[in-house]
């Protein structure tokens, strides 16, 4: 990339419109401003001080706004961190609750299985007893029949 600028006459405070390439030009704004002020009998330093004071007030106002925004962001970050902690605690509470509920369901299922096992064991005992009674009844009947 090539740098260039238009030549400026410091005596006349006007551009010569001669293009000079190879180096950037300098700003002559302050020199032009001084010259205009001198011709109009203005104290350019007073005007610059006024402009600088206005710029300083504007900058201070911007700084206060930025500090306020920073405080608001800090507050939001603290709220987010608090919400993260609350969420983590709630997740832990729900995990424990879920584990407890699962454990209760398992215990309920085990109790049901034990009841069903006892019921079937009793049914088997009852069937065996009926079979034994039927066999005994049949033997007794056969003995009675064979003795007559």
Q: How large, in whole angstroms, is the Cα Rg?
A: 52 Å
Q: Mind describing the biggest β-sheet? A: 2 strands, antiparallel
Uncertain runs: none
Estimate the helix proportion, in percent: over 70%
> Which structural class should the secondary elements be placed in?
mainly alpha
Tally of domains: 1
Number of strands: 2
Q: Which H/E pattern describes the elements?
A: EEHH
Keywords, separated by commas or semicolons:
two-stranded antiparallel sheet; 148 residues; 2 helices; mainly alpha
What would you note in describing this structure?
The chain is mainly alpha-helical and 148 residues long. It has one domain (43-147). Helix content is 78%, strand content 9%. It has 2 helices and 2 strands; from the N terminus they run E-E-H-H. It has helices at 29-39, 44-147, and strands spanning 4-9, 14-21. A two-stranded antiparallel ribbon has the order 1-2. Strand 1 (4-9) and strand 2 (14-21) form a beta hairpin. The protein starts with a strand and ends with a helix.
Could you provide a short overview of the structure?
The protein is mainly alpha-helical and 148 residues long. Helices cover 78% and strands 9% of the residues.
Indicate the topology.
Layout: E1 4-9, E2 14-21, H1 29-39, H2 44-147
């Amino acid at each position: 990339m090539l740098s260039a600028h238009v030549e400026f006459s410091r005596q006349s405070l006007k551009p010569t419109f001669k293009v000079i390439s190879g180096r950037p030009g300098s700003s002559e704004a302050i020199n032009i401003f001084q010259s205009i002020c001198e011709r109009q009998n203005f104290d350019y330093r007073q005007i610059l001080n006024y402009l600088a004071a206005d710029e300083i007030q504007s900058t201070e106002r911007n700084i206060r706004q930025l500090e306020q925004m920073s405080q608001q962001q800090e507050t939001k970050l603290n709220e987010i961190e608090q919400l993260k902690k609350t969420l983590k605690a709630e997740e832990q509470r729900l995990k424990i609750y879920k584990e407890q509920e699962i454990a209760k369901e398992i215990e309920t299922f085990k109790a049901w299985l034990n009841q069903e096992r006892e019921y079937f064991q009793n049914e088997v005992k009852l069937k065996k007893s009926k079979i034994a009674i039927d066999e005994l009844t049949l033997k007794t009947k056969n003995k009675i029949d064979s003795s007559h």
